[in-house]
Amino acid sequence: ADLQPFTDGKADQFGFDPERLMDDDLFLDPYYLSAEQIQDFLAETPYNRRSFLADYSDGGLSTAQFIADAAEEYQINPLVLLVKLQVETSLIYAESEPTRFRMDHAMGCGCPDGDAICRYAPKGLFAQITCAARLFRQYMNQLDSDGRTLTGWGPGIEKLTSEQQSITPRTKATAALYTYTPWV
Description:
Blueprint: H1 24-27, H2 35-43, E1 57-58, E2 61-62, H3 63-74, H4 78-89, H5 100-104, H6 125-146, E3 159-160, E4 166-167, H7 172-180
Antiparallel strand pairs: 1-2, 3-4
Helix pairs in contact: 2-3, 3-6, 6-7
């Protein structure tokens, strides 16, 4: 129900506004979740199951610590990275390690719509997390300097999403999210 637009609100006072997906301050808060909080979230997800990511590590580094480190390095909220892991490949929900292809393209980074083999994508979970965090930082830098991203998304700029819905982002964070994934 949170994803349905409401003009008069809902009982919980929260509704989905496709033109304000996230406030800029929240999007840019790299300390919103600590590595320990990310680990706790992966161990007990909103799906009432443990994500395999709670036990996944690479080179001795846990997924939770890697996400926290990437968030700090690129000054992006780690929650944004967690949400993208779920939106792009449902890895938060997954109880066991998925196919190599899903792991190699976990964030959909470098894998635009229509490119089924994702020829430009960096491969691997941690490479994908880094790619996404780096792109979000680049988008925010472009928005700060040019008022729009390389694909033309920006606050106050009307643009069509991939499903042809007219959106005018009200925040830089919203413009960055639509630059990354131009679907409502």
